[in-house]
Amino acid sequence: MEFSSRLLHQAVEEIAKLPGIGKRSALRIALHLLKQPEEQTVQLTEALNRFRKEVKYCKTCYNLSDNEICDICSDASRDHQTVCVVEDVRDVLAIENTGQFKGVYHVLGGVISPMEGIGPGDLFIAPLVERVRGSHVDELILALSPTIEGDTTGLYIYRQVQALPVKVSTIARGIAFGEEIEFADEMTLARSIQNRIPFEKSLKF
Predict the structure, then answer these.
(1) Rounded CA separation 163/85 (Å)
(2) Which residue ranges make up each domain of the chain?
(3) pLDDT tens profile 75-132
(4) H or E element in which residue 106 lies
(5) Nearest alpha carbon to residue 83 among 120, 160, 118, 135
(6) Buried b / exposed e across 97-129, counting CB within 10 Å, b at 16+?
(7) Do residues 164 and 132 touch, judged by C-beta distance below 8 A?
(8) Could you say which DSSP state residue 117 is in?
(9) 167 torsion bin: left (phi>0), alpha (psi -120 to 50), beta (else)
(10) What pTM does this model have?
């Protein structure tokens, strides 16, 4: 793709680094921004800069937050004895959109994947175990994507807390194997959480 402007080329190259954005889409976005009032582009760049510099990880659950403790963890009306364990911040948003879960969360920051060099030490699993040990948690709901990596991660967590006085459940398999939580429709996801089963019953051996 040839460009008459070095600045346009630079902008397209940077936008194309975003996930799911190809060069043609990046070009459309760049040209769209150029047509907008300068103030709108400035607001966008300022919002992104502030987000990058000021957003925090909640010290309790590792969800994204504007404060040290996120709004969900600081909400006294939530059920703090029920912790939903998810892979990613996007999964929190997906589950919250169902309106069916009133507990709190723990974001792992990924799943165990030896092929990608991701082990338990690269995730927020140790803080989860300490959270169960140090506070009154009645149930862990493993809401991980039904993939080999998700199942491996769930089994690892189960073994880490097996000796602790906590119930471990997993979402029902209304979600097809290989499907990611964030892409599941709200109804299926809501039913999967409501109809969760004890984790040990999900084990295949």
Answers:
(1) 18
(2) 6-54, 64-202
(3) 999 999 999 999 999 999 999 998 889 999 999 999 999 999 999 999 999 999 999 9
(4) strand 103-107
(5) 135
(6) ebeebebbbbbbeebbbeeeebeeeebbbebbe
(7) yes
(8) T
(9) beta
(10) 0.77
Q: Where are the alpha helices (DSSP H) in 55-112?
A: 89-98
Q: What residue spans of the chain are helical by DSSP H?
A: 6-15, 23-35, 38-54, 89-98, 125-134, 148-161, 186-194, 199-202
Residues 6+ apart with CB under 8 A from 133: 164
CATH topology of domain 64-202: Dna Topoisomerase Vi A Subunit; Chain: A, domain 2 (3.40.1360)
Q: Can you read off the two tokens belonging to residue 142?
A: 């493993």
CATH of domain 6-54: 1.10.8.420
What does the alpha-carbon distance between residue 71 and residue 73 come to, in Å, rounded to a whole number? 6
